[in-house]
Amino acid sequence: MMLVLPPRLTHEEAPACMRMLQEGIAGSSGSSTVVDASALEHFDSSALAVLLDCRREATALGRGFAVKGLPTRLRELGSLYGVAALLPAAP
Predict the structure, then answer these.
(1) What span, in angstroms and rounded, lies between the C-alpha atoms of 73 and 30?
(2) Long-range pairs for 4-8: beta carbons < 8 A, 24 or more residues apart
(3) Element (H, E) at 31
(4) What is the pLDDT of residues 51-80, one digit of tens each?
(5) 85 Rama sector, left if φ>0, alpha if ψ -120 to 50, beta otherwise
(6) What is the pLDDT of residue 35?
(7) Could you tell me what percentage of the chain is helix, strand and coil, using 3-state DSSP and rounding each to the nearest 5?
(8) Distance CA 74, CA 90 (A)
(9) 45: helix, coil or strand?
């Protein structure tokens, strides 16, 4: 299952985005969840929180998790916070 992040994901958009992603994860039956972050242009650390919540949801359902197109700046932020390894790149 491929889920897509919006171009803007800040503290303000995070709750609605997370609800949308949770519905997508719950409604899918695949063995893996991939989140496409390539559209992200404006984001803050809330984007990391959303991705980590998605990972938790997928893991709780016994599914794999990966991120496609994670912007370099967001990957660097993940490294700074020590969570980059929890957001593996999709093949």
Answers:
(1) 29
(2) 4/35, 4/36, 4/39, 5/35, 5/36, 5/37, 5/39, 5/40, 5/47, 5/50, 6/39, 6/40, 7/39, 7/40, 7/41, 7/42, 8/40, 8/41, 8/42, 8/43
(3) none
(4) 999 999 999 999 999 999 999 999 999 999
(5) alpha
(6) 96
(7) 45, 20, 35
(8) 15
(9) helix
